[in-house]
Amino acid sequence: MAQPKNFGFGEDEKMLRDTAQKFLKDNASVDKLHKLVAGNPDPYRAIESHWDKSIWDKIVEMGWTTVAVPESAGGMGMNLTALAALAEEVGRAALPSPFIATVNATLVVRECDGAVAEQLLGEIAEGKAMTLAGINKLGSWKSSDTDVTAKGDGDVVLNGTAYFVQDVAKSETLIVRAKSSKGVGLYTVAVDADGVNIVADSIIDLTRDQAHIQFNNVKVSSAQVIASGNGGAEAMDKAEPAILTVVAADMVGAGEWQLQTTVEYVNTREQFGHTLGYFQAVKHPVVNMMIMIDQAKSLVYNAACAIDDEPESAMKFARMANAMGSDVASFCSNRAIQFHGGIGFTWECYLHLYTKRQKHNQVMYGDSKYQRAKLAELLMGPVAA
Amino acid sequence: MSAASRKESPEQAEFRVHCRQWLSENTPEKATVRLPESPVEIMTNEQMDYLRSWQKSAYEGGLIGCDYPKSQGGGGMTNCQPIANQEMQAAGVPMLPNVIGLGMGAPTIHYHAQDALKERLLPLLFSAENIWCQGFSEPGAGSDLANVQTFAEKVGDKWVINGHKVWTSLAHFADWMIILVRTDKEDKHNGLSYFVVPIKAALGKGVTVRPLIKITGETGFNEVLFDNLEITDDYRLDEVGNGWKVAMTTLLHERGAGQLVTPSAGRGVVKKESAGDAYSLMGLAKEFARDGKLASDDPVIREEIMKAIIRQEGSKQDARRSRVSSLCDHPMRLPLQTKLLMTEIRQDYAALALEIQGPASSLYLGDDNAPSAGAWPLAYMNSYGMTIAAGASEVQRNILGERILGLAKSK
Ligand SMILES: Cc1cc2nc3c(=O)[nH]c(=O)nc-3n(C[C@H](O)[C@H](O)[C@H](O)COP(=O)(O)OP(=O)(O)OC[C@H]3O[C@@H](n4cnc5c(N)ncnc54)[C@H](O)[C@@H]3O)c2cc1C
Known about the structure:
- The structure holds 2 protein chains of 2 kinds.
- Chain A is an alpha+beta fold.
- Chain A contains 11 helices and 10 strands.
- Chain A has 3 domains: 125 residues, Acyl-CoA dehydrogenase/oxidase, N-terminal domain (Butyryl-Coa Dehydrogenase, subunit A, domain 1, Orthogonal Bundle), CATH 1.10.540.10; 99 residues, Beta Barrel (Butyryl-CoA Dehydrogenase, subunit A, domain 2); 148 residues, Up-down Bundle (Butyryl-CoA Dehydrogenase, subunit A, domain 3), CATH 1.20.140.10.
- Helices cover 50% and strands 15% of the residues of chain A.
- In chain A, helix 9 packs antiparallel against helix 10.
- Chain B folds into 3 domains: 128 residues, Butyryl-Coa Dehydrogenase, subunit A, domain 1 (Orthogonal Bundle), CATH 1.10.540; 122 residues, Butyryl-CoA Dehydrogenase, subunit A, domain 2; 125 residues, Butyryl-CoA Dehydrogenase, subunit A, domain 3 (Up-down Bundle), CATH 1.20.140.10.
- Chain B has a 4-stranded mixed β-sheet. In chain B, strands 2-3-7-6 form a 4-stranded antiparallel β-sheet, with no helix packed on it. A two-stranded antiparallel sheet of chain B has the order 9-10.
- The structure holds flavin-adenine dinucleotide (FAD).
- The site of flavin-adenine dinucleotide has 22 residues of chain B, from strand 1, strand 3, helix 11 and helix 12.
């Protein structure tokens, strides 16, 4: 299948993106963000999740959570390009919300058939926040690796711990990956179900919350089985290109904020009788930030478009997009802080909010070296033993 | 808008069919001479004759100058040159030799010359009956192009030119030169004017062309000396004193950021004797060993190849996105990156190719055992021409920083 030249980014997608951009600009400024999440700098502070629920309610009202939900389940069923554009705006605002977690859950659930999946997608379309759970203690990025086990036929009992679960404090429902003798299945569990013990993590990123979740004999009825057998791992694998693309889009949006903020600073701050941007040791790396962001952005829209229109290449292009996105995240964070000098090293300066979000994005779904290694497997075959 | 950008216009679709048809019936005969990597390393008459006759036939087939008005020898179409380029590249035909004319001369003449001059010069440029060169750089004016000192003095109704141009690609074959000269010594930027000069006709009569030898051992660029060369005023482009403005049109197109897309057949298909693109490194890595196993099984080499491929793909997608205005903040943000990215990426993967080849990368063009007939070492060395010519990478970064990001102008 061939991709449309415009990445599938037409009038509808543009309108959605422009509305999102304006909404976040008006309602989720970085000043507000800093006041909201950075009230207490103490690294040993009690763990708290700061977010503005009213913004999330508006997001739901505007229909962002329905974008990736198929029309048959009550969603808008828009293309991945629309979703990437939203994720880019969310990244630009470094928005604390369950949006990315819910989108990623949506992308996995929609790969599953059956009434349970259908029901969940309907709930997502109505605004219920959900998050994926199942990463093992070692932080493996492989879908089949999980420390949660599922035992029993029909009614199932979950045990074990899921690590690095995103934005649990903002979510109502867990989409849990658990392994049985038949493979990795997928189950829906309410955050407040009996036997679910959520232990919040103290994390660097102030724009998110994270937890590890202990499952102690959590009983799951057949109405909670989204995918049995190995269907959970299979759905994760199918959704992986989309998840990688969405996360890369978040990094691109955040990177663009880092670029623009740095440009503004080096265009104002003067030393040695010139604004900092006059000096090529500053100017050229700032240009390099822009070049990398642009490459990553182009790769993101290409990957998003491939998911809809060239599925046979989706994985390849998504790995490229995510690898470049991660490189953007690390390079832009690095240069942005450096070129702000001492002020860039302070808590009071807004940069750290983005640096920390970028760091989190880089490691949660496979860093750039991992993406390149997997891409090489795809293009060159496995390394001979 | 979205429907239009998804599909080709009827004109484009019809033209694509024509290109395919024409190319299938007019595949040029294989060259009997060894061809260089790119037109700016054409050294012999045999090479030039072969390529010139191919360009002439492609022009007659309607594949060159498609978007120029018919009165100027063009095809009178809209956005059809990219179609012809794609089809020529897919067909793996030879390169078009008159690159300076097609890429820089033609758009500059189109935008700035009098009608009579356009109608006279452009058809012969498109057909390669006239080869063109570009006389911008001088010993004292490289990156600082506005420092050009070659002087044109108005004597009666004639102009008399004196001065020294360097690095002039293709001047040894050229019939015509686009030239940037000084007409006022007092005003750096507004003291420049722009002409077309029939240099071949003046060889030995006011014009001397001397070949310069490149690091590869090849020729292809020259120095050109002007000693009281007289030309008429109708060879002037735009007004006296507007040379800098005209030169900006040339440079914009030279860097692939202009309105008119340059006719290009690419570099021909990836032959055994030519260097490939970043993707070709995957195959290359299967031909060489490292530490007792194939380079293609070395994780570090694999990682580097993937980096190169991702950057190359990123550039390709940048070009695609630059045509989707709703995904671009500033219309020139992507076009101004094209030249910089293309040349640096190529340089980096050529360097990687040499690493992959290991000891065999020491073998050069003249060695029978050289892998790919020495194409990768050649590509690596020639890559420096590309990161220096048409505005060095550092200058490109200045332009991007200043024009797109509004950073203070550095001297
Ligand atoms: C293969 C080849 C073909 C060419 N063909 C032509 C042709 O057909 N016609 C023509 O007119 N010219 C041609 N040129 C000349 C080319 O345009 C110049 O070489 C180029 O503009 C650089 O000028 P320069 O060589 O004088 O280097 P300089 O201007 O002396 O610069 C040397 C180096 O200094 C650095 N530098 C310079 N200025 C700055 C700055 N402001 N900021 C930061 N760094 C800077 C860059 O790294 C640059 O490479 C060709 C060159 C090559 C290599």
